[in-house]
Design a protein that fits this description.
The protein has 215 residues and is an alpha/beta fold. 55% of the residues lie in helices and 17% in strands. It binds SN-glycerol-3-phosphate.
Length: 215
Amino acid sequence: MKFFIDSADVNEIKQANERGWVDGVTTNPTLIAKSGRSFEEVIKEICKLTTGPVSAEVISLKADEMVKEGKALAKWASNVVVKIPMCEDGMIAVKKLTAEGIKTNVTLVFSVMQALLAAKAGATMVSPFVGRLDDIGTDGMMMVSEVIQVYRNYDFATEVLVASVRSPMHLQSAALMGADIATIPFKVMQTMTGHPLTSKGIEMFLSDWNKAQSK
Ligand code: G3P
């Protein structure tokens, strides 16, 4: 299972990378705005921190503009993946960019049928947003399991990139379902390392060791 970090904060990305948790990076306009840096500068820097795919999102909503923007983004670095919102114009853009060998990540996917259409258009990755579905009382992970099933039924090469991950449970379910990738905020990655019995065990081993030394 590939782990992407959902962040435009280079310090976070460096820390996650040090721990072996970064197979790629996803950004979105909100995360870029939060970084307080220019889009181009931050994407180029992130692309140097990893050899894995780095998603950079287009802002235009018209197919031709998306293609133009996507082509420009793809020139920033060889590992840029153009993130395109799920909509009809977006699908036209995905088909055109794919035909030119540019990788795409279709974002803001909230249904199995949207994921199927994105795969038909030739998307490299598709991003189902689980947390935002949970927020409105729908089971986000259920949708992911159905997307995985549909892609398997028809041997689609499109990778399932679980996004809007809010908790370790999202990750655990995604891993059990066999999702190709999950993009995870650094805080959630850190939450997963701890367990009360691990902390208790470390404390006990150290205390027993120190007692033995003082004998
Ligand atoms: O990058 C897209 C996605 O992961 C956003 O997550 O928490 O804003 O729904 P969230």
